[in-house]
Amino acid sequence: MTDHSALLRPAAAEFLRVARLPALTAPTPCAGYDVRGLLNHLLYWGPWLAAAGRREPYRHDVTEADSALVTDGWFTTLEKQTEALVDAFSAPGAWDGMATLGSATMPAAVVGDMVLGEFVLHGWDLARAAGVPLTCPDETAEAVRASAVAMGEQARAMGVYGPEVPVPADAPALERALGATGRDPRQLR
């Protein structure tokens, strides 16, 4: 597994740039989520991911469906959480060994790639909702694509990814990453 920690900070900055742009009620390409729902999802799972990166236990007392985290000050909370994720997965050794996410133990590099994927994929979802482009270097998009391909079958079985969307092999790296996760890169909204 590869340590992609150097890709996190720029991806996080671009994610935060687009996160504040769309109206909370705007639809997203992420199935089942409007912007408020997608932000709630991110705010719910971010502490789990950060704790996994720090090798600390974490649990919520409520489910994602029962949480309402997009309240006054949500963007400040998202900024702090994003910084905590970057810090956790930029620490020496964060991508080595095993980490626990909820009740599952997996390679820490898989969790780190999940964080990078959250920034890029959900960043794209939010950018589409706002009608703006997401800037993503090819190296970052390729790391997200490789992770999506490696986890694809399992992620589709769990309902995390939709069916793969065919994308030409010579398409930009971000479009190939999106297609691997079931997102149609041609979708404008």
Automatic annotation (TrEMBL):
Residues 11-127 form the Mycothiol-dependent maleylpyruvate isomerase metal-binding domain. It holds the Pfam family MDMPI_N. InterPro entries: CHP03086, DinB/YfiT-like, Maleyloyr_isom, MDMPI_metal-binding. It comes from the Bacteria. This is TIGR03086 family metal-binding protein. It comes from Amycolatopsis rhabdoformis.
